[in-house]
Each structure stands twice: as structure tokens, then as C-alpha cells.
Design a protein that fits this description.
With 473 residues, this protein is α/β, with parallel strands linked by helices. The chain has a single domain, classed as TIM Barrel (Alpha-Beta Barrel), CATH 3.20.20. The protein has 15 helices and 13 strands. Helix 14 (397-415) links the parallel strand 10 (375-379) and strand 11 (420-426). The radius of gyration is 21 Å and the shape is globular. It starts with 29 loop residues before the first strand and ends with a helix. Bound molecules: 5-hydroxymethyl-3,4-dihydroxypiperidine (IFM).
Length: 473
């Protein structure tokens, strides 16, 4: 995810809402915390793991702030049992984590590495022993470098390699893991990885990024077929998209056009093929104007649109758009229609992202109406400049207010008929925030990177108590 250049809100000055039951969330509502492999595991050259595109990208001068990388991260690979105990202590029922493809298949294809899969085998057992349901994501941005060298996601073959990896991982863990997410936020993989170059592998080619979109979705569909074949009726299968809520800044037709264009490129380009089996015509036309054709082959859209049990939604902010530049023109220097973000004027997180909880309600209601797949919030949370106080607490009142507002927004969406079944806080603990390194802290648990000491923040305690009260405990 990218930051904006706008200043952050005054940090941790809000008055924290007390933990109490959130009305409108049913007893079987799923409560979780989420992480991803590269952001927390460390041990990047342990037990046969090979480099992923993020290991390589972090070594490019200037790619990541302060030249940081995931070599050590939160040492979760070594500290996993104590981290699982901490997760259980937060009172959540579900832990969403991702598997590192480079640990499981060090060459991106071929035989499974027993030591690599062994880590996830132990993690799953540890979770189940503590009564926490594992929710597994197969791909959270860390493509094995060898596959990038062979063409990466712009190459069709990567989709087939992904399906093989999915099948191999399921063969090892599918007897105990029921909840499978194929991809996390394919927009980020395609757009940030291959168009803007802000994320690994750092390529900057618009056409390649759009080919990556199709092959990521195809990889999802092929993997889904294999998982369905292997997993039977018990499997719960989904994909996670990062979705905002895009609105026109005014009812000027140019603003309406700009908001629709942003929504097309950011949301409908993924949702429409996944759920309706077709790419949106306006986006296809826009790509055509830019000389790009999606590399769709016969049968691909049927593969991509096989039914989903759940749609994972990662929500952080909402965006308004104008179709007019500040100088009054409606086309940019390259002659393309202007799509300009216009702030809502709301407080911002340390990422510069505006805090717009009602955007989550609107998004969920819209997803229900236009796509009709049950949803789970697989990520929601905020970075703030937290500090460990002298009394050993982390008084992150801004994060408590953020979580409270967004969980209430989920309850509001349910009241309007959206079938939202769970909420996972991003993130369990502070971790490697990609191109921003370790300075952006999203955790409800503080991590001291010198000592690796974990301290549950006030938001973590609030989350634990809110879950308990809402369940009626
Ligand atoms: O940290 C990321 C995560 O890996 C994917 N979703 C957004 C988070 C915050 O940027």
C-alpha cells in the first residue's frame, strides 16, 4: 500500500472508547488477527528457504526506507510457539497467516522442502492445540526469485506454478486447515510491483502490470480448482482484495467519470472477473486506449470465476476523486483523462491515510448488492507513532478509536443487509511494512526490534475485551 505525502493526525491524542459489546455482531462472528510471512518470520536463509522477490528488492539501494529488510523481522520463525500463546491470550478465534512459497518450494516448482513446510505444520498444530482456527493465505507478495527471473507474474507459466504450489501445500496441511485464501491483494502485486515499481520486483511497465493482473487471477482460479478437488466439501475457499470506497468529489460529470475510472482499475478489474466471469468493458476500453490487451485465453474466465465461499476484504481508507486537475484541465500531459484524489479532510494515520470508517459500511453494502459473496474483513487497522511508556504500557488511543469506528462500521453494514462474517485486525504485531520498513507500526502488540520483546498495546487489550463483551462473556 502506498502512503500519501499529507501530514499524519496528532498521534494518540484521541480519547479511547471503553471496551464494551458492539451491538449487531452475532455470536458466531469470527474474530481474528492477521500477519504475513515476510513481514514477521525473519530466518530468510534458514532450513532451505531461498530468496523471494522481496529479499532481492530490499537490497536495491533506495527501494526500502533506511535500507531495511525482512532478514530478522519479528523472529517469528524462532518464536512461533510464544507468539501463538500470545494470539490465544488475545481471545481471538482465528489467526490469518501466509505461507512463504520460497520455504515450501525453494525453486518455485518441484519437490516440497520438508523443513520449510515443517514450520507451517508445527504452526497449525500449535494453533489448533490452543483452540485458534488457522486461516491460511498462500501468497502474500513473496514470489520465489527464481520464478521472477523466469518472467514473474506477467508470464502465464507463473499461474501454473502457483497452482502446483497450492496443491502441494494443501497436501501437507489440508487435513487440518479448512480456510484457504489464494492471493492477498493482487492489485498490490500487479500495480505496485510491475507498474509503479514501489514494491518488489520493482518493475515499471504498465503493460506488464496488466498481464500480471490476468495471470494472478488465473493463478487464483487454477489453484482454486486444485484445492476444491483435494479439499472436498469442508474447504472454505476465498481470495483477499484490497478495496476502498471511491466517490466523486462533486456531482460534476468529470468527477463521476474519474471516480468510476479509479473504481474500475482498483476494484472492478478484480471483482468482475472473479464473480461475474468478465472484465469490465470500460476498463478494457481504457486499457485499449493505452495500447494494452489482457492476455485472456479460451476458458480462462470460467476458471477465474469458479464460485468463492468467501471474499476477503482489506479496508484501510476511502477516496474521493476529481476529473479536473488543479489547473482546470481534464486531460493530463499524456492526453489521458485526469483522475485526481481529493482529500475528505479527515484525520490521517501515520501512513497519511484518511480515517473514513463509514466508507467501510458503504463498501460492504455495495459488495453485497453487486457481487453477493459472503465477506470477511481479512485486514483493517492503522499505523500510528506508538511509544512504549515508562510504566510498560503502549497507550495507543488513536488505534483504539480507529478499530472501534471500523468494527462499528461493519455492524452497520450488517444492519443494512451485508453478509459480513468476521473481522481480522491488521496486524497482530508491529512488523516490516514493506517499502516503509519498520517505522510504520500497525500492530496491536508492540515489538521492540532490539530485544524482540512483545508488549500488548492498549488496543490489543481493548480488542480482547471487546471480543469478550460482544460474545456475551
Ligand atoms: O502491511 C500491509 C499488508 O501486508 C497488506 N495490506 C496492507 C497492510 C498495510 O499497508
Amino acid at each position: 500500500m502506498t502512503a500519501t505525502s499529507s501530514p499524519a493526525v496528532n498521534q494518540n491524542t484521541a480519547t479511547a472508547p471503553a471496551a464494551r459489546a458492539i451491538p449487531g455482531l452475532p455470536a458466531d462472528f469470527r474474530w481474528g488477527v492477521a500477519t504475513s510471512a515476510y513481514q514477521i518470520e525473519g530466518a530468510t536463509d534458514t532450513d532451505g528457504r531461498t530468496p523471494s522477490i522481496w529479499d532481492t528488492f530490499c537490497r536495491v539501494p533506495g527501494a526500502v526506507e533506511r535500507g531495511e529488510n525482512g532478514d530478522t523481522a519479528c523472529e517469528h520463525y524462532r518464536r512461533m510457539p510464544e507468539d501463538v500463546a500470545m494470539i490465544a491470550g488475545l481471545g481471538v478465534d482465528t489467526y490469518r497467516f501466509s505461507v512463504s512459497w520460497s520455504r515450501v518450494q525453494p525453486h518455485g516448482s518441484g519437490p516440497v522442502n520438508p523443513a520449510g513446510i515443517g514450520f507451517y505444520d508445527r504452526l497449525v498444530d500449535e494453533l489448533l492445540e490452543r483452540g485458534v482456527t488457522p486461516w491460511l493465505t498462500l501468497y502474500h507478495w513473496d514470489l520465489p526469485q527464481e520464478l521472477e527471473d523466469a518472467g514473474g507474474w506477467p508470464a502465464r507459466d507463473t499461474a501454473y506454478r502457483f497452482a502446483d504450489y497450492a496443491e502441494a501445500t494443501h497436501a501437507a496441511l489440508g487435513d487440518r486447515v479448512r480456510h484457504w485464501t489464494t492471493l492477498n491483494e493482487p492489485w498490490c502485486s500487479a500495480w505496485l510491483g510491475y507498474h509503479t515499481g514501489e514494491h518488489a520486483p520493482g518493475r515499471k511497465d504498465f503493460g506488464d502490470s496488466m498481464h500480471a493482473v490476468h495471470h494472478l487471477l488465473l493463478g487464483h482460479g487454477l489453484a482454486a480448482q486444485r484445492l476444491r478437488e483435494a479439499g472436498g466439501a469442508d474447504l472454505e475457499l476465498g481470495i483477499t482484495l484490497n478495496l476502498g470506497h471511491s466517490t466523486p468529489a462533486t456531482d460534476d460529470p468529470e468527477d463521476v467519470r474519474a471516480a468510476r475510472s479509479a473504481d474500475g482499475m482498483g476494484s472492478r478489474l478484480y471483482l468482475d472477473p472473479l464473480v461475474h466471469g468478465r472484465y469490465p468493458e470500460d476498463v478494457v476500453a481504457e486499457l485499449g486506449d493505452r495500447g494494452v490487451t489482457l492476455p485472456v485465453q479460451d476458458g480462462d474466465l470460467e476458471t477465474i470465476s469458479a464460485p468463492l465461499d468467501v471474499l476477503g476484504v482489506n479496508y484501510y481508507s476511502a477516496h474521493q476523486y476529481s476529473g479536473t486537475a488543479e489547473d482546470g484541465s481534464t486531460t493530463d500531459a499524456e492526453g489521458r483523462p485526469v483522475v485526481r484524489g481529493v482529500p475528505h479532510g479527515r484525520p490521517r494515520t501515520a501512513m497519511g491515510w484518511e480515517i473514513v470508517p463509514e466508507g467501510l459500511t458503504r463498501l460492504l453494502v455495495r459488495l453485497e448488492r453487486e457481487y453477493g459473496v459472503p465477506t470477511v474483513i481479512t485486514e483493517n487497522g492503522a499505523a500510528f507513532d506508538d511509544e512504549l511508556a515508562e510504566d510498560g504500557t503502549v497507550p495507543d488511543t488513536d488505534r483504539v478509536a480507529y478499530l472501534d469506528g471500523h468494527i462499528r462500521a461493519v455492524a452497520d453494514a450488517r444492519a443494512e443487509g451485508a453478509d459480513v462474517r468476521g473481522y481480522f485486525a491488521w496486524s497482530l504485531m508491529d512488523n516490516f511494512e514493506w517499502a516503509f520498513g519498520y517505522q510504520k507500526r500497525f500492530g496491536i502488540v508492540h515489538v521492540d526490534y532490539e530485544t524482540q520483546q512483545r508488549t500488548v498495546k492498549d488496543s490489543g487489550l481493548w480488542y480482547r475485551d471487546t471480543i469478550r463483551h460482544t460474545r456475551g462473556g
